[in-house]
Write a structure and sequence with these properties.
Elements lengths: L4 H10 L21 H7 L4 H12 L6 H19 L7 H21 L7
Helix pairs in contact: 3-4
Length: 118
């Protein structure tokens, strides 16, 4: 059975410092009562929706209107993904996506960040 978010939060707070206590490149997340990454994780929010939340949370303190445009683009992508049968997506786009996923996997593996995942 999964831990409840309160139990997870308590166990995270017992670590010192936690990843939630640190931020690279500013303080636009650290100063929030609930950071988007933790909120998204605790609520099992999928990637695209989580990115929308991230951009909408930080736009005033980091990216300005550009972050709103990023969120809007992600909303449009989500609507497309939810309304377009995969069979109708051009093969060139699927190939492009596969290459991008493979590159992201290589980058993640090369960074060492995924080493604890097995």
């Amino acid at each position: 059975m999964d831990k409840q978010p309160e139990a997870v939060e308590a166990s995270i707070k017992m670590q010192s410092p936690t990843p939630l206590d640190m931020q690279t490149g500013g303080d636009h997340y650290k100063k929030l009562k609930i950071q988007p990454a933790y909120y998204n994780w605790a609520n099992r929010i999928p990637f695209i929706e989580g990115c929308c939340i991230k951009y909408l949370t930080r736009w005033r303190d980091k990216g300005g209107v550009e972050d709103l445009k990023k969120s809007k683009h992600l909303h449009e992508m989500l609507i497309y993904f939810e309304t377009t049968p995969l069979e109708l997506v051009p093969q060139s786009k699927l190939d492009e996506l596969e290459r991008a996923c493979e590159q992201a996997h290589r980058d993640f593996s090369d960074s060492g960040m995924g080493s604890h995942l097995g």
